[in-house]
């Protein structure tokens, strides 16, 4: 089977897009154009974007935005207001800690307490008719970093299917979304699940799946070491500190990549038992990887996942 892969850099990561017919190669650049367009709208790592316009107007007025931005904000707010750990209003805390950047520091208790008051998702007002977003309190900030890549991956898959691309791989650096059937007789894909102790090319196991999304989040890629303590980048909206957890990584298998992003966050906040209580959709499966090298799977993945790294143990 021939494949045609282009590598790009966007969304703060390396992106690999693959098709399997030479005549479909132009679809790779079209997908990259879509990524750049969405990033221009949604990023909070530049001074100008639609999301930054919403943040800069916090406490002042509502901001009308494009359909893409509005749809994503609306979904993020819906999940945030369920208060299970995912919070699109976490921006002030993310900015305060700034983990993963050269100026990252451990904030004071007073700074954390002040920013926590600005992370209430109930203070985000949406107007469907005007397609506008209003952050009611000055200093509030949206951060869609925990959901935007999934939204963009789903948008690429939709674009490809509409243009007759019936087989491909969308890899947005930790977010893999499969398109169509594989060339195996079963039509299923074999996907390596990343080991949290190693580089991106080392796997702890192989997952056999339909053309689903595989999203992996972990505390091992961005962290801050200060005075003998290590702080990862996944913030707890209840405490203002990184989530206290024995988890190293959570992988989510789901039909939509945006759901993979959401459930990987929920997995970290709620751990294995708590996440099972929230799950009401059997099409979503999770793999929990712990610091003691144990792995827990949801029941719907137990026949689909094969452990290949014998230093780990399935529980």
From TrEMBL:
Signal peptide: none annotated. Magnesium. Can also use manganese. It comes from the Bacteria. GO terms for molecular function: metal ion binding; transferase activity. Its cofactor is Mg(2+); Mn(2+). Its EC number is 2.7.1.180. It catalyses: L-threonyl-[protein] + FAD = FMN-L-threonyl-[protein] + AMP + H(+). Keywords: FAD, Flavoprotein, Lipoprotein, Magnesium, Metal-binding, Transferase. Mg(2+) binds at residues 146, 265. Belongs to the ApbE family. This is FAD:protein FMN transferase. The gene is apbE_2.
């Amino acid at each position: 089977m021939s494949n045609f892969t282009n590598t790009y850099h966007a969304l703060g990561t390396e992106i690999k897009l693959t098709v399997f017919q030479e005549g479909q190669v132009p679809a790779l650049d079209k997908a990259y154009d879509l990524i750049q367009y969405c990033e221009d709208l949604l990023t909070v790592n530049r001074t100008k974007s639609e999301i930054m316009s919403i943040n800069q107007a916090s406490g002042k007025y509502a901001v009308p935005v494009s359909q893409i931005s509005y749809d994503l904000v609306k979904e993020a707010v819906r999940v945030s207001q369920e208060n299970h750990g995912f919070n699109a209003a976490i921006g002030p805390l993310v900015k305060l800690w700034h983990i993963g950047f050269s100026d990252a520091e451990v904030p004071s208790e007073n700074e954390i307490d002040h920013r926590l008051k600005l992370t209430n998702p109930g203070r985000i007002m949406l107007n469907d008719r005007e397609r506008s977003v209003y952050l009611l309190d000055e200093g509030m900030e949206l951060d869609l970093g925990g959901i935007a890549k999934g939204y963009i991956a789903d948008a690429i898959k939709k674009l490809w299917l509409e243009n007759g691309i019936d087989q491909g791989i969308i890899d947005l650096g930790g977010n893999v979304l499969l398109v169509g059937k594989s060339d195996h007789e079963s039509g299923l894909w074999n996907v390596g699940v990343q080991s949290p102790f190693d580089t991106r090319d080392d796997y702890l196991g192989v997952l056999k799946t339909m053309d689903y999304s595989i999203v992996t989040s972990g505390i091992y890629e961005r962290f801050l070491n200060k005075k003998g303590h290590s702080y990862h980048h996944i913030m707890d909206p209840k405490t203002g500190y990184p989530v206290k957890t024995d988890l190293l990584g959570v992988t989510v298998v789901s039909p939509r990549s945006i759901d993979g992003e959401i459930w990987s966050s929920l997995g970290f906040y709620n751990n294995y038992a708590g996440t099972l209580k929230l799950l009401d959709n059997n099409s979503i499966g999770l793999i929990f990887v712990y610091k003691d090298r144990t792995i827990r799977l949801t029941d719907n993945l137990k026949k689909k996942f094969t452990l290949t790294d014998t230093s780990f143990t399935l529980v």
